[in-house]
Every structure is written in structure tokens, then in C-alpha cells.
Amino acid sequence: MKLPPYNIFPNITGDKIYLRQILISDIKDLVEISFYDAVQATTVKQATVMQVKINQDYIDGNSIHWGIADQLTNKIVGTCGYYRGLDKGEGELGCVLLPPYRGQGYMTSAMALAIEFGLNTIGLKRIWAATSQQNKEAIKLLERLNFIKIADLDDNEVEYELKK
């Protein structure tokens, strides 16, 4: 296994998007989708503090968090990454997309790139995701990416695992 941090932060290029490190200049556009420990930011200051914690988690080898950038504009349209379990050879894959970009294939592309990185670069043996039972779009995304439901969790959440 090759866990973070890496000598150079991994930027991953796809067809329409690429995954890159989030810069301080990106944060003002990401407040509404900035989360840490299931708490959502409501101000740029809160989102900045959260990003500092996310960056520290990466430095500590516990996670990797990418901005999903549109190749044409370099604008961050969402985020995705692995947030738990890396030390055990597994990764909880999470994602969030700004509302104007939903339904356009951004997240499918981003998650496919993140899955490939998790399997082939980090060397994960298990990739999983959790979401609300009401989040039908996330469930459709996970199923489209070959995840299968494995558990109903507390708080009306469901867990999915990548089927290899």
C-alpha cells in the first residue's frame, strides 16, 4: 500500500474534469459544499478552517481530498476523496457536487478516477460509501459505479461497497 501524503499531491486527469488539490482561492466557491465531521460550513471562515483540518488529515496520512475541476474553466465544481480507513487497507469514498453541475457526468467521472487511484495507487482492498436512504441520486451514482448495498445503518443511512 502507498498511503498519503505523497511527494507531489496527485492531480488526476479525466475526459472533462481533473482532480486537484483545493487552493485557498477556491474556498469562497465551495462554502455550501464544505463539510468536516458531518458539519456543514456556513461562512468562508468556517470553510477555510475545515479545509485546514482536511489538509492536516492528508498530511497525517488519514485521507485524500480532491477538488473536482472543470477542464475548460479550472473552476472547482465539487469535491471527492477518501476520508476513513486507509490505515486498514480500505477507504470510505465520499463526494459532493455544487447544484448547478449535477446531472452532467462530473461526479461519475470524478468517482471513477478516485476509484482507480484507490485501487491502483493506494492499493485499497475495499472501497465503501455511506449515504442517506433518501439520497436517490447518490445511490444511483454508486450503483452505476458498481457498488452494491451491504447494510442499513443507523440514522437512516445505507452502506455500499465496490464490487470487484
UniProtKB/TrEMBL annotation:
Entries under Pfam families matching the protein: Acetyltransf_3 (PF13302)
Keywords on record: Transferase
Tree of life domain: Bacteria
InterPro entries: Acyl_CoA_acyltransferase (IPR016181), GNAT_dom (IPR000182), N-acetyltransferase (IPR051531)
N-acetyltransferase domain boundaries: 17-164
GO function term, MF aspect, one: protein-N-terminal-alanine acetyltransferase activity
Keyword Lyase: no
GO cellular component, one term: cytoplasm
UniProt-recorded name of the protein: Ribosomal-protein-alanine N-acetyltransferase
